[in-house]
Amino acid sequence: MSESREHQALIERAALWLKVSRRCEIVLCSPQHPILRERPDVIGWDRRGLSYTVEAKVSADDLRREATKSWGYRVGLYRWIITPDTLEWASADRYTGHLI
Q1: Are 67 and 83 in contact (CB under 8 A)?
Q2: Under the phi-then-psi rule, with left for phi > 0, alpha for psi from -120 to 50, and beta for the rest, what region is 76?
Q3: Which of 19, 39, 44, 94 is the most core-located residue (most Cβ within 10 A)?
Q4: What is the pTM of this model?
Q5: Are 25 and 45 in contact, with CB atoms under 8 Å apart?
Q6: pLDDT (tens digit, 0 to 9) for every residue of the chain, 100 residues total?
Q7: Separation between Cα atoms, residue 41 and residue 57, nearest integer Å
Q8: Beta-ladder partners of 41
């Protein structure tokens, strides 16, 4: 399944945000590796080795699916979700993470 342009734009925005705001020295977009149980949209590491993950969600349904995922196999010590400005924030009422 190919990513939408909107989804790709959010990924690029999140990568820049991790580099600038979180000062991540290493940032990977859509990393794929057979050992990963989760494939985050963006993951970065700062100089202390702390990891940050950002998931891009372009629809309320996608955001709701994220809320139902198990936290057991997630990557990233700190996790955020990035959404387009047009997504209704009320749809995030069940999500307990950080929204950027």
Answers
A1: no
A2: left
A3: 44
A4: 0.78
A5: yes
A6: 457 999 999 999 999 999 999 999 999 999 887 776 778 899 999 999 999 999 999 988 888 887 787 766 677 888 888 988 766 544 344 444 555 5
A7: 10
A8: none
